[in-house]
Amino acid sequence: MRRRRKMKVTQAFVVARPPEQVWAFFQDVFSVAQCLPGAELTGQDESGAYEGSLSAKLGPMTATFEGAATVVSDADSMSARIEGKGVDKKGGSRGRAKVDYAVAAEGAGSKVTVDADIQLSGPAAQFGRTGLINEMAKRLIEDFVDCLEAKLEAETEEEAAVIEAGEVRGLALLIASLWAWLKRLLKPAS
C-alpha cells in the first residue's frame, strides 16, 4: 500500500519594503525561485507553466521533485495561487501543492501570508507530520526572506541576479526543526 499524507502549512512573514515593491518582486518567478532553498527553475513551457525541481535532504533521504507549476496572479488584491506537482524519480515519491499567497501593508513594510495544501505519496510521506513540516517551513521561509531582502537591497540588477538561497542542509534543518517543535509541545500552558 502506497503511503500518502496531506498537510496544511500556513506561514506569514514581514518584509521591510512597501507592498508594491514586494508584489513586483513576486512577479519575477525566476528571482523568487532563486530565493527558495532547494528550488531550481529550468524553463517555461508553451502553456506558461514553469518547469523545474525542488530538492530537500531529510536525514538519510534526498528527494528531488521534478515537475511543473502554474502561477495565477491577481494584481488588484496582490494575491496569487501556485499549483504544482512533481515526481522524485529516484525515490518514487510524488508531490502536489496548492499555494495561495497575499501581500498586504503592515506598518512601513509588507506582510506576506502563505497558505499551502501539500500532498505527498511514497517514501517522502513519512516526513509529513504537520507540526514538523510547519516548523521546517518556518525555517526555510526565514532563509527565503533573507534572500528576498538582499535582492531588494541590491544596487544593480546584476548584483541581485547572483544572490540566491543557500543549500537545504537536511539533517541540520530536521534536527533544529524537530527541537523547536518539541519545545513548543512540551512548553507548559500559561
Labels describing this entry:
5 helices, 190 residues, 7 strands, Alpha-D-Glucose-1,6-Bisphosphate, Chain A, domain 4, 7-stranded antiparallel β-sheet, 41% strand, alpha+beta, globular
Please describe what this structure looks like.
The protein is of the alpha+beta class. It has five helices and seven strands; from the N terminus they run βααββββββααα. Strands 1-7-6-5-4-3-2 form a seven-stranded antiparallel β-sheet. Helix 2 (29-35) crosses helix 3 (130-153) and helix 3 (130-153) crosses helix 5 (170-186). It starts with a strand and ends with a helix.
CATH architecture label? 2-Layer Sandwich
Tell me the strand order in the biggest sheet.
1-7-6-5-4-3-2
Biggest beta-sheet profile: 7 strands, antiparallel
Count of individual domains: 1
